[in-house]
Amino acid sequence: MKGEQELNQPFVSVRNLQKYFEIKGRGMLHAVDDISFSIEKGSTLGLVGESGCGKSTTGRVMLRLIPPTGGEVYFEGQNIFAIEEKRLKLMRRKMQMIFQDPYSSLDSRKTVRQIIAEPLFIHKTLRGKALTKKIDELAEMTGITPDIMDKFPHELDGGRRQRVGLTRALALGPDFIVCDEPVSALDVSIQAQIINLLQDLQEKLGLTYLFISHDLSVVRHISHKVMVMYLGRIVEEAETEELFETPLHPYTKALLSAVPLPKVGFKRERIILRGDVPSPVNPPPGCRFAGRCWQVQDVCREKEPALLSINSHHRVACHLVKSE
Amino acid sequence: MRVSAMPNVNSTHVTKKFLISETSRRELSRQWYRFKKRPIAVIGFFIVLVFIVIAFVAPLIAPYDPYVTDFKNMLAKPSSAHLLGTDELGRDILSRILYGSRISLVIGLAAVGIAMLIGVPLGLIAGYYGGKLDNLIMRVMDILMAFPSILLAIVVVSILGPGLQNTIIAVSVFSVASFARLARGEVLNIKNQEFIEASRALGAGDGWIIYWHILPNTISPLIVWTTLNVSSAILTAAGLGFLGLGAQPPLPEWGAMLAKGREYLLIAPHITTFTGLAILLLALGLNLLGDGLRDILDPRLKE
Amino acid sequence: MNDLLSIRGLCVEYHVFEGIVRAVNNLNLGISEGESLGLVGETGAGKTSTALSILKLLPKPAGRIAKGSVIFKGRNLLSTPDVELRHIRGRQISMIFQNPMTSLNPVFTIGEQIAAVIKQHQHLDKKMSINRAREMLELVGIPAFRASEYPHQLSGGMRQRVGIAIALSCRPELLIADEPTTALDVTIQAQVLALMNELKEHFKMSLIMITHNLGVVAEMCESVAVMYAGDIVEKGSVSAVFAHPFHPYTKGLFGSLPDLTSKVSRLKPVDGIMPNPLYLPCGCAFHPRCKSAMPVCKKEKPSTIRLSDDHTVSCFLASENEGGAGVESTFCER
Questions:
Q1: Within this chain, do residues A70 and A184 fall inside the same structural domain, yes or no?
Q2: CA distance A253 to chain C (A)
Q3: Cβ-count burial of C127 within 10 angstroms (0-12 exposed, 13-18 middle, 19+ buried)?
Q4: pTM exceeds 0.80, yes or no
Q5: Which terminal residue of chain A, N or C, has fewer Cβ atoms less than 10 Å from its own Cβ?
Q6: How does pLDDT run across B25-40, given as a tens digit for each residue?
Q7: Nearest CA distance, A139 vs chain B (angstrom)
């Protein structure tokens, strides 16, 4: 598509990704509606949005955990939607996922050791002493102490469970990890511990992350680039600093101003949106944000704005923002 | 040495550790502890244990041969010679009940064993794959379950003919549906949990997921269900025996004994009473045990 | 100080199979008329237990108020019989809960649920109650014609507004809000908090806002109390505490927060996790995780030291200069 794509193959490249669900009796749910983006190796792309925006679905479809409705995902130059089962199994070793719920993402009948070992069993990579050694190494890397290796998930707190999930994801030595709200269910101080861990691991192992979250402060802290989604579409994407300092899309502005800040006497413009987050079933024509936008114009209701580049690192989908 | 696909067949030291590990021993002792705390389960357990022991040592402890008749002593009331009295052919009731426990237990365990071997895989497949296959299997199961179990057993026996072996088959039919439904329910419970999705993300295929995640999660409800099913299998078998369709005389099958005893109920109630008590006790023991097990076998359940 | 509500020496326990869970340990807290207080802490700190104790709503039979008093307008609620307490609940002291799906009854319309509370406390007849209910709906930003809808027909944000309407329908003097916006999207949260601020002004209510989110506290409250393992470790006005947090745990909380307004190099949380409330450490409950722990911290529980007019803290680091004596730990497992 773009000339630069051929020269500089980005590590992960998503093109025109679509995922629709058919809801009986109500119509088509446009969970992910034709989005395209890419992620550089070793960096973190933050994906933010509220419920129904499609961020979780995006992560899952990218790893082919849910079959896509359309589009392509290129990982190291290969379209993972087009490869067959056997190759896919091999690819899976390089792309992994960590989940939001530290309770349901672990099998409650398996011990920590068994959970971490599972990927190694599935791919039959190691056995015997080498297997034990590998598990111990992994556990050490993520801060899991030996005394909990034989415990069950329900005996551990949320933070430790997330570490277990993370260790499991790292077992096969992946290059790319989709983090689906990994710290949202954790207490603040545990959250910080896990965020630090994720950053350390990224540095140490050269990992690439897609960090999905609704918590903008966390996303700012951990991401190099941020993408904002609304009802299945990308509304804005930019490098972190630029997005947070100079947001252009009205929704991004509203989102940023809605976050309560733990600071006293901090002045800023508060934008309170009216109305509820609409449903992604049978979206209306025009801009999806038109119903809640305080700057809405007629054109917004008729024509859907395209995602245009403002500069080399900033894209916005809004009629009111002129691209250069 | 080739590594087979299933790690618990792999004989390396490490993976054996995963099977009978420190943790398993710890879990087992935890469950034993819980078990001891529930008097109901313990009572049930001992009752069943007693019957199992009886079934094994019947020849050693029965005072008489259960088939030997004694026409001078027919319908005798309980006495020091015959602790529970004799039946219409002079055979010792106590001995017949002791030997009868073998028959009932064998029917119960065999029938349920067969039912489990057929029903559980069917249920797992139906639940896991869903769709038309699920529909097909479950509708057949529904049809089987629509009949009262005893009726179903009668139908089967009338096709195959009476006798011990056919009784086992007849009794197992209903249980197949019961196990299938149970297994399917468990699979559906788990199928959409995130850890299954996590497994897929790791590259697991269907076979692995069923083996590693679904089966272990199914085992404890299965154990409970088995115990309860054995109980109803024994009752159904006794029912068949009562109707004369089960194990044929002279086998000391409890149901048949009940039926015969009914004819002499007014003059020799001890035949029906004691046989009935035996059936009651065994079924009760199994039920209590099953209920107790239900509470215990879940590592997630806290006290 | 003219406290509307004063909690003194509150101890709450849960009796479970493994032992006794000490959820709240000797808590002292006061709130005056019109004040909004943020009660901050992580999971297990005891915030919800404290809130439920005020209205004697602890789950029975496990939950027990072992000691202490809750004085509301001169009257100890803990020794008030249930019959009288029912007149206070919903009328003078109201509560809203975290999960708007489960705190509303799915089989009654929202209008009916609001009206029920009004009818109960204000003894109006059915027609008038429904009318008042509609007024409340408008007040919380829901069109009155939706009074005939059921909870499942509303979104999360709207359901929480209904919860607020129910709580405020009898003009309570004190509102206890237990994590009311945690389950809501950010933009909806902003709406609900703005609404609560408005109504707080309108009705001149006192507010206890229970939350783990320091941003919400800054938004909604004038004073803040930080809880850890069942007790308050630091308390004061939001400006004082946020500008100069003293207690190592409070500092750790602030250090754990990523900043929305600038890029922080690395987060500085406290290591470790909150102690198991079945086995609280001796002395100061925080000492195992505290980098500045001193020998005295392991043996005695620090008493409350006044740092300034509107700032107190429970920490031996503060009493170093004052030579303050600690309090003997009431329970020591080792």
A1: yes
A2: 11
A3: exposed
A4: yes
A5: C
A6: 666 666 676 667 778 8
A7: 17
